[in-house]
Write a structure and sequence with these properties.
The chain is an alpha+beta fold and 346 residues long. The protein has 3 domains: 49 residues, no CATH class; 185 residues, SPRY domain (Jelly Rolls); 61 residues, no CATH class. Helix content is 12%, strand content 28%. Strands 4, 6, 7, 9, 12, 13, 14, 16, 17 and 18 form a 10-stranded mixed sheet that branches. The longest helix has 21 residues.
C-alpha cells in the first residue's frame, strides 16, 4: 500500500460525516459499498446485548449512507451476486438517478449526455436485465449498450458512448435498433467466456458483438441513454450454474404501468445549452472521403444526407441536422463562428 502523506486526504463526498467513530471503515467507490467495523464488543459476557446496542447506534448513519447512494455489504449469502445499481459517481451530465440508483433518466431537452455504468463489475455470464420505461418521440436513434474495462469515474465522461468512448481503448458499445427500444421493452446483456458482448432483445434474438476485453479483468456494464430512449430501469441480474442460479440482491419489484412507461414529447422551451468546452468539436464530423451513402453519425439509424457547407462533410441525416442545430447552436452560426461545434478542426 502506498500513501502520499504530503497530500491532504479527503473523505469522498458521498460518505456522510459522523462523530460516531467506528474503529474501521472500508469503502468501495466502485460498488458503492460501506463496511463499518466495531472492535470493542466484549467477548466474555453480554455479547448479544452489546451487539444489538451497537447496531442501533449506527442505524441512523446507515440510513444516511443509503440516501447518498452507498450501500451496506451484501449479507444475502454465497448464492447472491451482490447489489447492482447504476454508479452514482460516474454518469452523464444530464442523468438523474432514482429508485435507489436503479432508474436512470436523461433530460428530455437533449439526446446526449446520458451515459451510466453498473455500480460494480459484472461477472462472466451474469445476465443484466434492463427495462426501457420512457421514450421521447422527437429524437432519433435509441439505446446504446456496451462494456468497459476502465473503472467508471477514472475519467471525465464525453457526451456519447459512440463514437466518443468507443474510440478509446477499453470501451466497446453497439446500438440497439429503435424498434427494440419501445417503452416496456426488456433487454438482457452479458459477457460470455470468450469476451463477446451478447444482447438479447424482446423478440428473442441474441445479438453478438466481438470485443478485445480481457475476461480476467474487471468488466463494467455501460449504457448510453441516448436519443429517443429517456428512462431505463435496472431490474437485476442472474448467473446460471450447473446446479443453481445466483442472482443480484433482492429489490422491490417495480411493475411496468401507464404512469412510468410511455412516450413523451420534446419540451417547447429552448433546450439548455451545454458549455462548448464540454462538447468536443469533432463529435459529429466524419472524413468527407467516406462513402456518404453509408455514413451514420448522430443517430446511427438513418443515412447521412446533409452537407455542412464550410467543411464539406456529410455527417447528418435531415432529422438530426435540425435537432442538433437547435440544441448546440443556430443553423446560421456555422457561417460566422469558426468554432461552431459541428465542424471539426482541420
Amino acid at each position: 500500500m502506498t500513501v502520499n502523506l504530503e497530500r491532504q486526504l479527503k473523505i469522498p463526498a458521498y460518505i456522510p460525516q459522523s462523530s460516531l467513530g467506528p474503529d474501521i471503515t472500508l469503502v468501495s467507490p466502485t460498488t458503492m459499498q460501506l463496511l463499518l467495523l466495531e472492535l470493542r464488543v466484549p467477548w466474555e459476557e453480554r455479547m448479544e446485548e452489546v451487539h444489538e446496542r451497537k447496531r442501533e447506534k449506527y442505524q441512523e448513519l446507515v440510513e444516511d449512507c443509503k440516501r447518498n447512494g452507498t450501500h451496506r455489504a451484501c449479507g444475502c449469502g454465497n448464492g447472491c451476486l451482490g447489489p447492482l445499481m447504476f454508479n452514482a459517481e460516474a454518469k452523464g451530465q444530464l442523468v438523474r438517478l432514482s429508485e435507489g440508483g436503479r432508474r436512470a433518466t436523461r433530460e428530455k431537452s437533449s439526446f446526449q449526455h446520458g451515459l451510466v455504468f453498473s455500480s460494480r463489475p459484472v461477472k462472466i455470464q451474469e445476465k443484466v436485465c434492463l427495462r426501457i420505461e420512457r421514450s421521447v418521440s422527437g429524437w432519433h436513434g435509441a439505446l446504446r449498450i456496451g462494456i468497459t474495462s476502465v473503472a467508471p469515474g477514472s475519467r471525465s465522461l464525453p457526451p456519447l458512448a459512440i463514437p466518443d468512448l468507443t474510440y478509446s481503448q477499453g470501451y466497446w458499445a453497439t446500438l440497439v435498433p429503435e424498434n427494440q427500444c419501445e417503452p416496456r421493452t426488456e433487454l438482457k446483456l452479458w459477457v460470455c467466456r470468450r469476451g463477446y458482448l451478447r444482447i438479447r432483445t424482446s423478440d428473442g434474438q441474441t445479438h453478438i458483438m466481438e470485443t478485445q476485453v480481457n475476461t480476467r479483468d474487471p468488466i463494467w456494464a455501460m449504457i448510453d441513454v441516448y436519443g429517443q430512449t429517456n428512462t431505463i430501469l435496472l431490474i437485476g441480474s442472474e448467473k446460471k450454474g450447473f446446479f443453481s442460479t445466483r442472482r443480484s440482491c433482492p429489490v422491490l419489484t417495480i411493475d411496468a404501468t401507464e404512469e412510468n412507461c410511455g412516450y413523451d414529447i420534446l419540451p417547447t422551451e429552448k433546450p439548455q445549452k451545454i458549455p462548448e468546452k464540454q462538447t468536443p468539436a469533432s463529435i459529429f464530423c466524419q472524413n468527407n472521403g467516406h462513402n456518404r451513402s453509408m455514413e451514420r453519425v448522430v443517430c446511427l439509424s438513418m443515412h447521412a444526407d446533409v452537407l455542412l457547407c464550410v467543411c464539406g462533410h456529410w455527417c447528418l441525416c435531415p432529422q438530426c441536422a435540425s435537432r442538433v442545430a437547435r440544441e448546440i447552436g443556430r443553423e446560421d452560426s456555422r457561417k460566422t463562428d469558426p468554432s461552431f461545434p459541428l465542424l471539426s478542426k482541420q
